[in-house]
Structures are given as structure tokens and as C-alpha cells.
Amino acid sequence: SEHIAGAPLNMNGKYLKLNNAWISNDGGNEGIRIDNNGNVGIGTANPGAKLEVSRTDAGWASIIENINTLATDTNSGLLIKAGEDALDTVLNVQDNAGTNLLKVDGSGNVGIGTGAAILNKGKLEVKTTTSGSNSVIAINSPGTAYATIDFYNGGTTNIWGLGKDDSNNFYIDTGAASGGAGTVLSIDRGNGNVNI
């Protein structure tokens, strides 16, 4: 029968079917499950959170897209508001086995591959359990560009920088800007000579 929007809809325990997708709370083969606790499950009959999305075939389980291209719009993407200290987990990315791949706690600490319950080594902690020659952190840039890590002390001056220059030589510099200005040490990639 026809239902007019704005009027209450009482299904008397039955499901609501939209084409081939069901909306119900009977735990059947529905597309969207709403349980008695208000949890919503998409692709799962037993949602364990306010929203749980599950997919068993190939493809993304969820896609969030904002196609707004206004230059004045500073809000786009995904906003997560949660946590207040290192004991709170704001974001946790795991593999299918439940191993932590990336974690952000309530104090802003970020852990990659650490598997730690509490991140207390610094603002960024990166760990690998793979032996061999794989890089823990890889910084890649074109051959004609600098690849630099800069260390600041609150402003844009009095910084240290280290990395490779546009000739692929290693350098350490200090100054108002990185990129070779104020070089205090460099190592020539071709002959291994050290210049101080």
C-alpha cells in the first residue's frame, strides 16, 4: 500500500523492502539492519557499533567523497571527533587478523605498525617487523628535486634540514630555509667525499 511521507510508518514487526534491499530488525537477509539498540548494520545482521559496514566480496566497503571544489571551503572529507588523552583511540586501522596498522590516539600521537595499546614514544612512531632491506620510512622525490626533512623550533627560522639535494648528494644544512642553503655537511654520492 502507499505510504505518505510525514505520517508514522508501523510495520508491525515486518520488514520494509526497497527493490531488492530490506530494512528490518529481524536478523534476516536484509540490506540494512537496525537492531533494538539503534545500531545500524549494512551487510551484517549483527552490527557491533552505531554504524557497521561489512563486505565479503571484492571492492571498497565504504567510500566517502566530497566533490565540492570551492576554494573558500576549508571543510571537506571526514571529521572524527573523539578522545581526550593517550588512553583513547580516535582512529584505528587493522588488517583482517585484527593487527593494528595505523592508530591515532586522543592526544594526537600517531603509530604506524606499532601494535601498541598506548603510544608513548612521540608524536609519530613507525615500526616494522619485516627483516631485510625494506625501508621503514621512504621519502621519494624526482631526481631534480630536494628530498628533505626539516626540524623547526616553533617558527620558520633556526631550522636544521637533512636529505638529498638535486644532484642526489646527502646534506645537512641550517638556515632560514632548507634546500641546500647554509650547508654544514655534504656527502658526494659519486665519490663518497665528505665536505664540511
Give a verbal description of the structure.
- The protein has 196 residues and is mostly beta strands.
- The protein has no helices and 14 strands.
- The strands form 3 sheets. The protein has a 5-stranded mixed β-sheet with strand order 1-2-3-4-5, with no helix packed on it. A 5-stranded antiparallel β-sheet has the order 10-11-12-13-14, with no helix packed on it. It has a 4-stranded mixed β-sheet with strand order 6-7-8-9, with no helix packed on it.
- A hairpin with a 2-residue loop joins β1 and β2.
- It is elongated.
- The N and C termini lie far apart (85 Å).
- The model has no long low-confidence stretch (mean pLDDT 80).
- Count every helix, treating DSSP H or I runs of 4 or more residues as helices: 0
Task: Estimate the global geometry from the Cα principal axes.
Answer: elongated
Mean pLDDT, all residues: 80
Largest sheet: 5 strands, mixed
Strand line-up in the sheet with most strands: 1-2-3-4-5
Helicity range: under 10%
β-strand amount? 25-35%
Q: Give the quaternary arrangement of the chains.
A: single chain
Distance linking N and C termini: 85 Å
Q: Low-confidence stretches at least 5 residues in length (pLDDT < 50)?
A: none
SSE order, as H and E?
A: EEEEEEEEEEEEEE
Structural class: mainly beta
Gyration radius from CA atoms, angstroms? 26 Å
Count of β-strands: 14
Summarize the structure.
The chain is mainly beta. It has no helices and 14 strands. The termini are far apart.
Annotation keywords:
196 residues; mainly beta; five-stranded mixed sheet; elongated
